[in-house]
Amino acid sequence: MKISPLMAVGIALSFCVAALSGCQATKAKIAEMKEGPKNTACDLGLEKLKNAPTDDDVRKMVPDEIAACKADIAHNDKPRLKMNLATTLRADALLKRGGKDETELFAEARTYIQQAADQGYAPAQTMLGSILHNEDKGDERVRFKQAADWYHKAAEQGDSEGQELLADYYIDHGWGLGTGQPPAADVEEAFKWNKMAAEQGNVQSETNVGFEYENRKSYGDAADWFRKAADQGDRIALYNLSELYEKGEGVSQSNTEAFKLVMMAAESYRSDAEDDHVSYFLDRHSDFKKASDLAEKGRAEIRRRDYDGAIRDITQAMQTAPDVAYFYYNLGDANFKKGSYPEARQDCDQAVKLNQYSASALYCRGMVKKATGDTTGGAKDIAAAQAIHPDIGEYF
Description:
Elements: H1 5-16, H2 20-35, H3 41-50, H4 55-75, H5 79-95, H6 100-118, H7 122-134, H8 140-156, H9 160-173, H10 184-198, H11 203-215, H12 219-230, H13 235-247, H14 255-267, H15 276-284, H16 286-303, H17 307-320, H18 325-338, H19 341-354, H20 359-371, H21 375-388
């Protein structure tokens, strides 16, 4: 039997009875179905805008996208199109920082966001809540309560960002009352909404759920949720999962895994993989401190063009911790500058495999690709690296 879209909606709703979080996700899907296909000129233009490689390209495209969205809205009052227009106006405002046009563009964008929110469009409701929460005027408690009301409207429709922000609101502001430590009831409410968002893949909520399970000493559950967020490159989740491995809480104790994770967290944020978490870990573990020192010695040897020495020392460091992206992309850098491109490509590929969110690993592979004739692939990797760390080229 062929199932119509309306029948599909009815079937999906019937499953909501079984699980609240599943119901929230289903509501979000139903909202998408009601919106229809995203094939207007306004929709397609926004996708091109999001994928524009440079700010200059965005500047050139913005006027046409604004005109396309306004034309589409004139014939179709869908709130999604108003949000598309608001997004474009806000992008234009950000490109005109400091000028009169910036204020006017933000004000116009807010008008369209308000209209879309009033029409019940969940992403607009979340955005309006965020604007109210962050603007610096009026009574803070009133604004926070208004923000929470909009987050709640979006959250009830299954919007994962609205759910996450509503959960944050319960913890941080106690519904705007500024009471400090949230009451137990608010903690439970925050946990409920974070869990809903996390089950839809919201990375911040996955980390927050991990924190709450850790607070409850349910370390196995904490590790599971931290791992979900870590797999999406969340730095805080990586640090906390590392600590669980170091302590053997909820997972099998492994200093090697703990070192790998703390280095991934640092690499995903800074090109030199140096931060306090790494330093504290190395202070507690002399064997990994020795391996790290060998890798740093290798970096110095690369700068002196002693590539064979660098390869020797970094390879020795890898005997202590064999699956650390930081070691692999430095080894790849040494092989690349030595002219050993096949070895460099293998090293850099492994670095990306171990940490796809490492700017240095992506940049390393991009340089090798370009040097071996894959100009397009190389440019793509380098652009991805610079999106994470704009000044990554200075490291190499």
